[in-house]
Hints:
The chain is mostly helical. The chain has a domain at about 25-105: Multidrug-efflux Transporter Regulator, Chain: A, Domain 2 (Orthogonal Bundle), CATH 1.10.1660.10. It has five helices and three strands, in the order E-H-H-E-E-H-H-H. A three-stranded antiparallel β-sheet has the order 1-3-2. A hairpin with a 5-residue loop joins strand 2 and strand 3.
Amino acid sequence: MTVPPVRAGDRVAGDKVAGDKAAGAYRTIGELARDTGLPQHILRYWETRFPQLRPLQRAGNRRYYRPEDVALVERIATMLNKDGYTIRGVQQALAGGAKTAEVRPVAVGDAVRAVRDSLADALAADSAR
């Protein structure tokens, strides 16, 4: 699942998003969900897993995401959905203050190849007996 920061065609000249608030304005959870393509329940779940993600909460527990919260959500989404990180891996990367480029996830393809090769070697050794 790709996660664009804003739907294609929504950006216009200046610091506004067409039909929306200014770029620096606070966003509700519904607006953030619409802009990122992530379901609201995922955003609420991430709030429990990432202590850095703490939107303002007003009366009635209505969430307001600051621009830095929006950037963090986009970074988490990219790390999870594009870069192959696990929740735990993103937690460690964010806790260490590491940039996405500095911490590399284990390539899934390499891990699968290594397991396949070791199984093939074991099978060859077993059939040779």
